[in-house]
Amino acid sequence: MALVAAVVLGCGGGPSDDAPDTPPPEPAQPAPEANAPAPTPGETPTAKVEPPKPPDPLRHRDDLPPEKRIVIAIDGEQRVVDIDAARAAGYTPVDLTNDWTPYIFEERLDDAGEPLSNRYRQIYMGLANDETDGDGRPLPDNELNFLEVFGIPPSMGVIRTRFIEDEAKECHAEIDYAAIGAVENIPFLKGSRLRSYNGRVARARRAVKKAIGQANAKGEKAYKKALRAAKAEQKAREKAYAAALKAHQAAVKAATAQGQPAPAAPAPVEAVAMPAPWDPIDDAEELRARDPDVAGTVEESMALADKADRREIAFDHVEKRLKCDDHDRPRFKHKKGRFDHGLRMAVRRFQRKHKIYEYANMKGETMEMLATPPRASNFKSFERALTERVVAATHIIEDGTTQTGDEPPTYTGTDGKEHPIRNLVAEFVDAAKTQTALDTPERVLAFFNRFSAEDFDTWMRVGVKFPELPEYYSGDMDLKIVIDKGDVWYDLPYNDEGKELRQPRRRMPKLMVYLRWNDQTIRLVRWPTTIGGWRKDLAPNGYVYMRYKGSDTGDRVIRKIISGPTWVPPTSTPLKSLAKRRWVNGKGQGIVNYEEMGPGYLSAYGLVAGYFVIPGRNGDVDRGIRAHGSSDYMSIRSSRRFSHGCHRLLNHLSVRLYGFILNHRPHTVGGDQKMNAERQFYYKEQVYQMRMPSRGFAYFLDPPVPVSVLEGNIKGKRKRPYEGYVKIPGELYPDALPGEETGSEDDRAGGGAPVDEDDDA
Q1: For 335, phi and psi rounded to 5 degrees?
Q2: For residues 688 and 557, what is the distance between their CA atoms, to the nearest angstrom?
Q3: Is 756 a residue whose pLDDT tops 80?
Q4: DSSP states of 290-310 as a string?
Q5: What is the 8-class DSSP label of residue 600?
Q6: Which of 7, 134, 242, 473 is in Cβ range 3.0-4.6 Å of 469 for a Cys bridge?
Q7: CA distance 360 to 96
């Protein structure tokens, strides 16, 4: 037995020779559980096996099919996870695919479950993806749609391309964005105004140059005077030293004769410090610092010359920016160094890309964006596009426009406390950016580099846990639209001699959405809009008159909403607005101007319209008034512009408004409203055949949304609008005024006049 034990210990690498000759201790046994059954004699106990943990439902997965994928971020890490698991965890999907459209253009099914065709959906997607134009035709090579100002944000695929391509452009490194940002504006001047400005700048520069010359002459004169004084002082010192030295020599001689010690010699002459040579002043900045007295005499000239210099430098870099971004198109024929019409066209293109509601001038927000490097400006485009997708996904509308003072308005909750009307759009977009780790330009660029173009074509969604909605939200909200017409003038806009009269409006029209909830009225948004006014109108006798095409006052309802609406031009519409020229194979040809009629973002009704009607015992009365989107955004912002009676909204706000209403009011989907309207007209020796097959894609509200149009603040002497036609002073007319035409329900709506790109008003 001892031999066997030795062999066993040896195989185990037993104890060393120094170990005591004692058996090893028995291994320690774990204490049995209190309630564990005693092991059966002869049976070996087994360890308790824990069941495996289930996999994390929100783990990153590469095996998911496209339709099941969604991107979420956990602790700043983006993951592709199962969309059902994300929904179960409280995430709301936000669609970032390239076929996204607002709610009003989303696909709908009829009662039988069959898809209802929305004629404008495919055109909208083609425009957003830079694939087609407003007529659905393929875009020419190297052409892009910049349609945010018209309510169509670019697709995420387009924004992805902008990010990636701009990072690769070397020309951006040549642009001094700080130099652009150093000026507030670069005015567009021509003719006598340009000559006058150039003359003032030239005179200012001459005055500054002369002042610098005077300062230099003054300084040089002072230098020479100081130099003469220093030399004279040096000469006086040397003369005094010579006299002292002579006296010292005499004293030494006398002391030697008397046998006394010689006196100390006089101290050597200390050189006088000569003034430094005059360093001429080179520019106005030096002049201010070194000779404020002279500078004060030409301060205005220096300021003007300095501003002109900074503008010239900024202008050079603006040209580089527009060229690098491919806005200075060859067809614009811009001449370098000139603020000509070609450059204004390039500026307008830049403004449309960046959703800037301004005339084609370089000032205000336009200058700020020109001074913003492309990565940052592309991030702003991403934020705007994300905003519309968040709004569509969450069906919210409050955007902070109800706040007119320092504090937001409030409502009383069911808890009896006052709560602010929140800016839900800002809150929800901020949540989307931060939760998905897409809150900086760098992170968005990394996101676009991580995912391919195909991902945005097929499945791209992000998941967000949005803040809780206010308690007044529900599927059926008691909504109402109120329109305040602001300042209203009924007086003629000119005197008997035909001179235009000023009719200022300080209080501008506003469209407001109210909610009746818990015995209180809550204002959700407050947006700028338009009212009707004096317009030129083609009468049945063929003459153009003035006519007051006002907006009706009183109570109405919206029973019908139409996306991609069509406007049927009344016979009073000037023919020049019904036709346009198109270039085909280098030749111009006349075609019907369907841009004006729709469907389309440039049409009179924009992307969507709500139809105002007066309910009656014998049916609704339609007086042709709508609240609709509009491409003529400057008419909404100008105190001098009016509609034909309708209440225009910025296109993207009209899309939000009616998407919100449809998601919070009972309605039925009417689908495509076939019309088959035809009209033939003759203009400039050409016959035009106009066909409009549909009024658009309709939704019917039941019950309808009530509308109240307030009277407004009536200005001037006249308290009621004119009826009928009014002659324009200086024009020749027949003796009798034309009678009223019957017309259609669209007559009062009128068309949206094209934006005047050269208007500085």
Answers
A1: -100, 125
A2: 37
A3: no
A4: H-HHHHHTTHHHHHHHHHHHH
A5: S
A6: 473
A7: 31
DSSP assigned state of 747: T
Contacts of 4 (CB under 8 A, 6+ apart): none
Residue 755 has pLDDT above 60, yes or no: no
With a cut of 80, say whether residue 376 has pLDDT above it. Answer: yes
DSSP three-state, residue 457: helix
Angle (CA) 645-647-649 rounded to 5° is 145
Determine the Cα–Cα distance for residues 102 and 537; give it in Å rounded to an integer. 35
User: Hey, how many other C-beta atoms are within 10 angstroms of the C-beta on 369?
Assistant: 19
In whole angstroms, what is the distance from residue 729 CA to residue 724 CA? 16
Whole-angstrom Cα distance, residue 596 to residue 580? 10
Least confident of 74-78, 86-90, 587-591: 587-591
**What is the 8-class DSSP label of residue 512?**
E
In the numeric block, which tokens belong to residue 617? Answer: 């015992």
Give the tokens for residue 144.
């892009």
**Average pLDDT over every residue of 410-424:** 97
The structure tokens listed for 173 are 């490194």
Closest by CA position to 78, among listed 68, 66, 70: 70
Other CB atoms within 10 A of residue 432 CB: 25
Query: What's the CA gap between 582 and 589, in Å, rounded?
Result: 5
Virtual torsion, Cα 140, 132, 577, 508, nearest 10 deg: -120
For 16-22, what is the mean pLDDT? Answer: 43
Query: Quick one: the chain helix, strand, coil %, rounded to 5?
Result: 35, 20, 45
- Per-residue pLDDT of 663-704, as tens digits, reads 999 999 999 999 888 888 888 889 999 998 999 999 999 999
C-alpha dist (Å) from residue 438 to 313, 420, 445: 35, 28, 9
In the sheet where 461-464 sits, what is the strand order?
77-82, 69-74, 461-464, 92-95
In this prediction, residue 37 has a pLDDT band, given cuts at 50, 70 and 90, of low
Give the span between the Cα atoms of 263 and 163, in whole angstroms. Answer: 91
Type and span of the H or E element at 526: strand 520-528
- What are the tokens at 457? 């074509």
Distance CA 516, CA 39 (A): 74
> Per the structure block, which two tokens stand in for 426?
């800002």
Place of tokens 């830049």: 350
Q: Are 597 and 139 in contact (CB under 8 A)?
A: no
Q: pLDDT (tens digit, 9 = 90+) per residue, 221-238?
A: 999 999 999 999 999 999
For residues 462 and 395, give the distance between their C-alpha atoms in angstroms, rounded to a whole number: 17
Residues 6+ apart with CB under 8 A from 25: none
CA 13 to mean position of chain CA atoms: 79
Contact 512, 397 (CB under 8 A): no
What is d(CA 318, CA 178) in angstroms, rounded to the nearest whole number?
Answer: 11
Pairing status of strand 510-517 against strand 478-484: antiparallel
The CA distance from 378 to 390, in Å, is: 18
Please, which residues bridge with residue 621 across strands?
A: 614
